[in-house]
Amino acid sequence: MTNESPRGLMLVFASPSDDSREQEFNAWYDDVHIPEILAAVQGVTAARRYRISPAQPAVPGAPAAPYLTVYDLDRPSAEVLASFAAARAELTMSDALGSGERAPTVMIYDASDAAPGA
Q: The domain containing residue 39 runs over which residues?
């Protein structure tokens, strides 16, 4: 990857399916999921994970997930989403990933100087 800013970002707010499975969730996310995404989804060039700070005050309407993954995108978001859909069958999912009310929230942002979806 170059020193250029990413063309866009994909933010994934995620939770383990149950608090007792947090270690399993993190192992799957770090050791399986992110490497698979980086290998299989064209346009995703990097990923970084974060845990919400204990100092974060409650924000009404904000995702309640304790984890955030930031993926750097190097091409139009529409192309990345198409690549993600094509790779979905190749990705190993885990039941340690939250579902229902704990399902991940995905947000995609294009650089503010790029045309929407470009």
A: 8-54+62-110
